[in-house]
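User: What would this chain look like folded?
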Amino acid sequence: MRAFEWPIEDIVPAHPDLYLEHCAVMAVALMSRQSASPCEFLVECEGFSPAGLEGENTFLLQVAWNEQTAITAERVWLTEQPNPIIERAAVALAALTFAHLIRDGQLRVTQQGERADYWLPRLRCALEISGTEQSRELSRRHREKTAQMLGNPRRWNGYVFVSCFDAERRLIRWSYHTQEG
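Assistant: Here's the prediction, encoded as structure tokens.
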């Protein structure tokens, strides 16, 4: 199985039009409660195989961070409630993975109610992102987010990226879905 180790800070230059520094810090706040740098996730891909995986559908994602990000992350739990931290951490992992494995995967935020979090305009795809700390919620959350993304008003195909930050089982379910008909 392939393994990739990338610094979470890569999301900032990879997506220069977006303000993702806070997402990187929230990801480190969450991951550092469970692991030293790097924090490892098993990524399961469904419906596609990312570039560089030679047809494989699983890989290990090792997310590293620098000392300055770790220092800033120490204050996050005093500033934010858990749910926004988990959701922004999931956005950070998705941004990191897309930056390294999806060519032309530049993200553009959607409008509220468009049933996806981001558009990938060069790919004509939608992207829905979610996070949880409970591995037992992963399958249900993935099904719900898939249905949501497929209801996007542009009727674009798209990706669903659900990160599980369970201390016992860190897992990402990343899937690609096409519109029927």
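The chain has one domain: 2-177. If you want, I can go into more detail on any region.
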